[in-house]
Amino acid sequence: MKRKIFSTAALVCCFMICLAAVVADLSGKWTGSLTTPDGNQFPLNYTFKVDGDKLTGTGESPQGAVNLTNGKIKSDSLTFALDVNGVAVIHTGKYFSEGDSVSLNIDYQGMKFHTTLKRFIEK
Fold this sequence. Notes:
eight-stranded antiparallel beta barrel, Lipocalin, 59% strand
């Protein structure tokens, strides 16, 4: 009986460590671009910080940098908002560790956009 309990506890610990490693990899700088309906592209840069299930950091565009609010992370899913001139821009997405990318859906006052972020690697 003790062996079964120990084995179960060990498996749970391994699972939690693997999950923490996946989530922790989201921390860092990410870059991408957003294409508007008229074809213009805007560069986007994000810096994510993960603390448990809380996501913080900043988002930066040509208009400037703003802090992430209401950031949450659960497994490989993330949500946060950016306050852009008094408007909450809602971001929802998924983190793909195998491709080192983040797929983001952005809702700006009912207009829906999609972008893919890649980890920023300084040269």
